[in-house]
Design a protein that fits this description.
Largest sheet: 2 strands, antiparallel
Number of strands: 6
Helix content: 55-70%
Strand content: 5-15%
Number of domains: 1
Distance between the termini: 47 Å
Order of helices and strands: EEHEEHHHHHHHEEH
């Protein structure tokens, strides 16, 4: 495993960046398909490719910034003494929970400004999001970050000594935690993609994304060697519990598990003020 794919003179192509490009490109393609299928509108006009490009340009940078801020905040003892390292995201250190929170807030703001139904759009978006997370774990594998605790299991990985995992646990095989999460993310993607035509109320797929990913992340976090901590508790476990309880209550309160009759127009699926 090596973080750099190829060097062409002054140009360096890293696996980390390449996986982001692949994830964003594939995710955007799937999002366009879903927006068209669901008939999502901007006011009374169809949502266009240009609108979705605007969404991408708004959301991706803010999600990356949010992911970095979240990570740096939990590692402030180090970064307060190495401020120049704060911007070095190519070395790893993007916390997915921070990215999801910042991204969701940006999508909400975008929907309010553009008059788009928030839950309809996020339902179209979450399959792309979880698939992108799965692809991103390949970058973590090649980079040697998001690594696991030492293990004697036969599939443990010896990372290069100059990688984050190699420096944390020199000479030791570690759990391939990023592969565990990639597999679980692909399973969640298969589920979300499979239910998208089942007629559930707007917001159901979004809520299930948060619940299922939180469960997956909570499980994988037991094997992670680079966990962020809140005192004696892994931060991932705390926020996962919040998401599971919060979105579980959201499903029950809004009765999102009910299916809308086929003849019901997509715009009538919710009546929540926040969706307008």
């Amino acid at each position: 495993m090596h973080p750099i794919l190829v060097r062409l003179g002054p140009l360096t192509i890293r696996y980390y960046g390449l996986m982001y490009v692949i994830a964003i490109s594939l995710g955007f393609y799937l999002l366009v398909r879903e927006v068209r299928r669901k008939g999502i509108t901007k006011g009374d006009a169809p949502l266009t490719i240009d609108d979705l490009i605007d969404l991408l340009l708004w959301t991706v940078p803010m999600a990356i910034i949010g992911a970095r801020i979240y990570y740096v905040a939990f590692q402030w003892d180090y970064y307060s003494r190495h401020l120049a390292d704060v911007v070095k995201i190519w070395q790893g250190g993007l916390a997915i929970h921070g990215g999801v929170i910042a991204g969701a807030a940006t999508v909400y703001l975008f929907c309010r400004i553009k008059r788009i139904r928030f839950w309809a759009l996020t339902d179209a978006l979450v399959p792309s999001l979880i698939l992108g997370q799965a692809i991103g774990r390949i970058g973590n594998l090649m980079n040697g970050d998001a690594y696991g605790l030492p293990t004697s299991l036969p599939w443990g990985i010896h990372f290069p000594p100059d990688s984050p995992a190699g420096m944390a646990y020199p000479g030791q095989a570690t759990h391939p935690s990023m592969i565990y999460e990639m597999i679980l993310n692909l399973m969640i993607f298969a589920y979300l993609w499979g239910i998208r035509k089942k007629g559930y109320r707007d917001g159901f797929s979004t809520a299930m994304y948060f619940i299922l990913y939180s469960i997956a992340r909570a499980i994988v976090s037991f094997t992670r060697g680079d966990s962020l901590w809140l005192g004696p508790i892994r931060a991932a476990h705390v926020i996962s519990a919040v998401f599971i309880l919060g979105f579980g209550a959201f499903i029950i309160k809004r009765r999102l598990y009910e299916r809308v009759k086929p003849e019901t127009h997509p715009r009538d699926r919710t009546a929540a003020p926040a969706d307008r």
